[in-house]
Amino acid sequence: MKQILYILIGLIISIHSFSQSSAGQIDSLRQVYHSAKPDTNKVKAGIALVYAYVHLDIDSSINYALETSELANSIGDKRFEIIAKYAQARALSERDIPTSMQLYFEILDLSREGGDKTGMAQCYNSIGLVYLYSGSPEKYIDYLNKARKIYEELGMTSQINHCLAEIGGVYANINRDSALYYLNLAGVDSSRWKSQYFQYYWGVTESTENPDKARTHFLKSLEISLERNDLRCYSLASRWYCIFLQEENEIDSAITVGKGGLKAARQLGFLRGLRNNAEQLHKIYDNLNQIDSAYKYLTIQIDAQNELLSQEKIDQIQQTSIREQRRAQQLQAEKDQIQAEIRLYGAAGAAIVFLAFTIFFYRNQRKTKRSNQLLRKQAQEIEEKNIELKDSYDNLKSTQSQLIQAEKMASLGELTAGIAHEIQNPLNFVNNFSEVSSELLDETIEEVEAVKTRHALSQRHALSQQQDSSQDKESLTEITDLLSDVKSNLEKITHHGKRADAIVKGMLAHSRSGKGEKLPTDLNALAEEYLKLSYHGLRAKDKSFNADFKTDFDPNLPKVNVVPQDIGRVLLNLINNAFQAVNERSKREEPEYKPTITLKTELTANGQQLIAISDNGPGIPSDIKDKIFQPFFTTKPTGQGTGLGLSLSYDIVKAHGGELTCESKEGKGTEFIVKLPQNL
Question: To the nearest 10°, the Cα dihedral for 113, 116, 122, 128?
Fold first, then answer.
């Protein structure tokens, strides 16, 4: 096993030098690898390529790792099998953390079985790194201390200092005093150490107390990373330099540096770098209240986080940790069993042997107690980590809720134009009838004044009283007719005012957040209302838009208990999609094409209420049809759709105990069908 370590150290040293070499040297090594026979020389070249690409192209590094590991297994050389497995674990550590951790634990078991303490120390260091990548810096420090303890036993000064320096790097953004303590203990002089990693460690450490020094270290780290083609360190250092520049209120520079780190991470395929730089850019744009940019980088951050540490991968990491803990308990149990057997056989010995055994047992019990305490501590740490993961999950759920509310507000925007058109009609009626009523009242007043005048004159001329009486009757009849017209106009004003009030209340109900209350609802009326709102809304946005729409409502459709504003959102979204589809096809200038959508309701044989929205648009391609109900999936151009409309519609219908389905043929059209149970 020690020979394996020496080979591994030699490879790592040569690979470190190679990682700083030119692309021509990488091409030369690739040529050696692809032209070599399937023997140990090809394995060596493959391992060298794994480490050469780990800072340049993670996907290539993983591919060479898998090929080389398979080749080493087929050759049957145990030494190179372990070395190749170690290289595979290193390549996967930035992409598939659970698999990488499992491989390192397997190598640790092999090192432990072979008595290879140096190999165990190297595995402890690597396992700790994987825990750091998964968001557990305290576990990384624990495993570094385990490795340091072995190195101290073996007197390996260089490796001891490396462990101390890495501990200082972990503390750099947690506790400045601790970072300085460990970095100084390791003898890391910031002016002499040329490692790009330690340069940005010092940058983070000095960022609060010595900004000028911190800036120098960050720039030096980026410079060395570029010289050595180390995209990984460039991305990591950019993230911390971006944070530093933001705290120094150099926002434009912070954005430039953050985008540079994001670009390097994307080129490398470095998920942690992608997540961390996107997170910082999201915070900056959020503070600047630039919502679109903040949302863009939040999406990149969430996607990278999900790919790096999905819930499934987190569960796998926990399972691996639990298996290792159980294995440690099993080893301890086996040791306890062996000791019990020794006690059983020792009981038959002499009193001196019994006394010696008793002393030994006492000491062993103390050790067991300490081990149990350690296990309890580890269990507590695992529980705390579970709590942290739950908090992270809750934060993601909160983000999802915010996105859903944003989609609701987008839906409200779709309604606005249609509502403006609908509410304008009753307002026009109110204004017109008010003007007419005003004119009628003026005429009424004139008639009343005329009657008064004639009455006064009649008192003076008694002979004409009979004639004036007849004229008064005619005037009173005319006044009565005018007042009847005024009353009729006022009734119409009241009717259209109530209609405008209903439209406004409907708009408020649509925009209201919360689950809402189920009410007996006429789906025919609801569908017709949202059909008109959608059509007029699109017409308000695009005057050139025009389409025919037909309705086929079941007159015997009973009312059904639903949340009207929620089902209204579903109908609005589906009808909007239908109008947009036929509008898109109409722009192709097909001869004799008439854009048409049809809205149909019916009561099915099994008692379900069905709403079908069909169009004769271009149809949905078969290769994406199964994806249309997925969250954030959209075929619309960037900025014209959130990808949540159909997903939210599906969830709303499902929450009502119904189902939402889609039938589509390319070039023919699409039909969305909503089925709701009668008794909700």
Answer: 30
Q: Quick one: three-class SS letters along 8-43?
A: HHHHHHHHHHHHCCCHHHHHHHHHHHHHCCCCHHHH
Q: Where are the domains of the chain?
A: 1-8+25-92, 236-309, 313-390, 422-511, 519-677
User: Which DSSP state fits 598?
Assistant: E
DSSP code of 614? E
552 φ, ψ (degrees, to nearest 5): -135, 80
Per residue in 163-205, pLDDT (tens digit) is 888 888 788 767 777 877 887 887 765 444 567 888 888 888 8
Using one digit for the tens of pLDDT, what is the confidence trace for 113-151?
888 888 888 888 888 877 877 778 888 889 889 999 999
Q: Could you tell me if 273 and 264 are in contact, meaning their C-beta atoms sit under 8 angstroms apart?
A: yes
Side chain identity at residue 40, one-letter code: T
Contact present, 89 and 100 (Cβ < 8 Å): yes
What b/e readout covers 446-474, taking b as 16+ CB neighbours within 10 angstroms? ebeeebeebeeebeeeeeeeeebeeeeee
CA dihedral sign of residues 490, 496, 502, 507 = negative
CA-nearest of 602, 596, 601 to 614 is 596
Query: Percent helix, strand and coil across the chain, each rounded to 5?
Result: 75, 5, 20
Q: Which CATH architecture has domain 519-677?
A: 2-Layer Sandwich (3.30)
Six token digits for residue 278: 């996107």
Let me know: does 611 contact 660? Beta carbons within 8 Å. Answer: no
Report d(CA 280, CA 232) in Å as an integer. 17
Q: What angle do CA 655, 659, 663 make, to 5 degrees?
A: 145
Quick one: which of 463, 489, 518, 538 has its CA closest to 655? Answer: 518
Among the listed residues 658, 671, 557, the one whose alpha carbon sits nearest the alpha carbon of residue 625: 671
How many residues in total does the chain contain? 680
pTM of the predicted model as reported, rounded to 2 decimal places:
0.42
Evaluate if residue 313 carries a pLDDT over 70. Answer: no
CA pseudo-torsion sign 428, 434, 438, 444:
positive
277: which residues sit within 8 A by CB, 6+ positions away?
A: 235, 238, 239, 242, 258, 259, 261, 262, 265
Alpha carbons 543 and 129: distance in angstroms, whole number:
61
Residue of 31, 54, 118, 57 whose CA lies nearest to 82: 118
